[in-house]
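Reviewer 2 asked us to include a model.

Predict the structure of this chain.
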Amino acid sequence: MKRVLKTNNLGLIKSTCSKQGFEPKHTTALLNTRRSITMATTRKIYIDANNTGLWKVKQTDESAKKASELLQHDLETHHVYFNEKGFHNHLVHHVLSLYGTGAPSSVLQAGYDNNASYQRARQPLHNDVVTNLIQDWSHAKAYLGKGEHYPDFLAFFQREIDAKGWEGVLSEYVFAGTEAADDMLVRLYAGFLHPLIQLLYGMEWKQPAIVAEALAQTCVHEPNFKEVLLESEEKASKTYGRTTSGHGPAGADGMPRIMKLIDEVRNDEKLRGAARMDDDNKIRDGVLARAPEEMLRVISKVKIRPEELDERTAEMFDASLYVAAAASFRFENKFNFFLMHHVNSSPIFLTFNAQPWIPVETKVRLLEWKIRYDLIQYAARGAPVLDMNEIKSYKPKDSKNTSVAGKSKPFKRPCQDLERLLGCLDVLTRLYHFEADDGHAIKLARAAVIQEALSKEYEDRDWLLLKGDDVWTKIHHMIVDSVEAPGEAWSRTVASDDTWTKTQIS
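Predicted model (structure tokens):
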């Protein structure tokens, strides 16, 4: 039987793999035949109205057809970067985030149209390169990190997925733990996590073509911060040791709570001041250039036991969203562009954990890398002060609608009473008509809803920061209010520790 994300009532996601239920096998040949006809492939996008992602909202056949058409057009027409500077094409994320929050077909079309006009056209295929890759993957070294070879890598991975399935290809090329796979894993987390986010949508919607796009996108990124990520992993293993079973850190103490590590970054003066206004890259030229040992010391404390996986995943998601939300008060009530990506990428770890074909050791490793990168990014933003009281005292712009739930009841237990979360559409649907959105805002809003549902199981834990209907109401409003406010939708600044003024990133 195939393990899938268990849903209740209208189907909102509950938690991660170890606590999921099972989907029965198909019982009729007719259904099997129908699925074969409508199956998504490496060259065909097919979105089913019954698959709306982790937040299982109800959708229509019309919207499903529209999402499929738009994503097919993007696949056949556009490059992964919309300019020569390597700025990312977000059309897949945008369309599926809108679709996955219940948007009608007209909104999907408008969102696509608003952002398709400036995309780069699909670049020509180099058949000799594809042949070279097919002959031996080691030949990829000559092409990795080069945007002009995106079509070549896409064609290669489409072929590989056709032969092995997307699960098998991910296992071989990214999760295998070999030197070549680790190089791909580093690239997956590069580019402000964009390859990881692309993979999020491919896996969540089970689209082989989007998985192939994510792998090709991974290939054209540089292996940024490879040394520090691998060194911190090795140091963590040596520091914590391993149990006799070979799994996880030994000893009762284990890894500190994530917010304790955030506090370590914040309380280290050298780390806090490492990123500067004139740094071209705040991580490379700031944190890892001026405080490499200090950063390595903190991220080497990240080591997760397999039995902690589900709870640590929820903790990571909670910390990522809390940091992004609380830091917004240091940036004139604007969410920071870079911290926002760490929230938007977080749902993929629920999908990773729900895959029975991914070994638990690999799931743990993927999560550890995300937490380490979260800590590095927090330092790169100047380690801004975080104050829960500012979230609690936030006054929503729409004073007439200060509850995302209206008069609906709060959750009785995880994902059983869905009225409250469905009520947040009153706030979230304002983003359907936010013409300046290129997908970032609706991704953030969707991620917050998913985390609210996930957090309900852990409300008795001391580590959980975002809890209670009132706090979640403020979070949902903060996201939408932030992007709707005058000026740029996002802050691209570093917090100044001297005056808490903001210095513009170049």
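The CA atoms of residues 147 and 503 lie 31 Å apart. The longest strand covers residues 493-495. We have added this to the supplementary material.
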